[in-house]
């Protein structure tokens, strides 16, 4: 796994820095004709897990970017709980991924664009662990534009 860490000397906001890494994962999904959602998990300013949608490739409806990143991060640290970690994901997590985040007890979720149709917040915020902090809107325009472009391309086929 590629390890990236945030340099405190950088002029960029750390949330933006790591969202750009999640966006790179979304681009990998896009190139593979998967719904372009990407995720990274960060602990101590280092990426410990990465993922992008693999539902088509794996023929598995649970192979969302967040689920891939949770598994990668847990394997990286050798633990199922992701205390003091942040999930960066390009689109608001769905109910399944929000529920999984509850079980990981992740400390923070930072997402790009809201998913008005399938995002967890449309059903209520109690799906997340009570200690999980959420920040939305980081690179929201770029993240939303990639999704729109993907689905427009699908409709034109």
Q: Would you kindly provide a written description of the structure presented here, covering whatever features stand out?
A:
The longest helix has 18 residues, at 14-31. 39% of the residues lie in helices and 19% in strands. It is globular, with a radius of gyration of 15 Å. Helix 4 (95-104) links the parallel strand 3 and strand 4 (108-113). The protein has a 5-stranded mixed sheet. The protein contains 5 helices and 5 strands, in the order H-E-E-H-H-E-H-E-E-H. It has helices at 14-31, 55-58, 65-77, 95-104, 140-156, and strands spanning 38-43, 46-52, 85-91, 108-113, 133-136. With 157 residues, the chain is of the alpha/beta class.
Task: Write a concise synopsis of the structure shown.
The protein has 157 residues and is α/β, with parallel strands linked by helices.
Please give the structural blueprint.
Layout: H1 14-31, E1 38-43, E2 46-52, H2 55-58, H3 65-77, E3 85-91, H4 95-104, E4 108-113, E5 133-136, H5 140-156
Parallel strand pairs: 3-4, 4-5
Antiparallel strand pairs: 1-2, 1-3
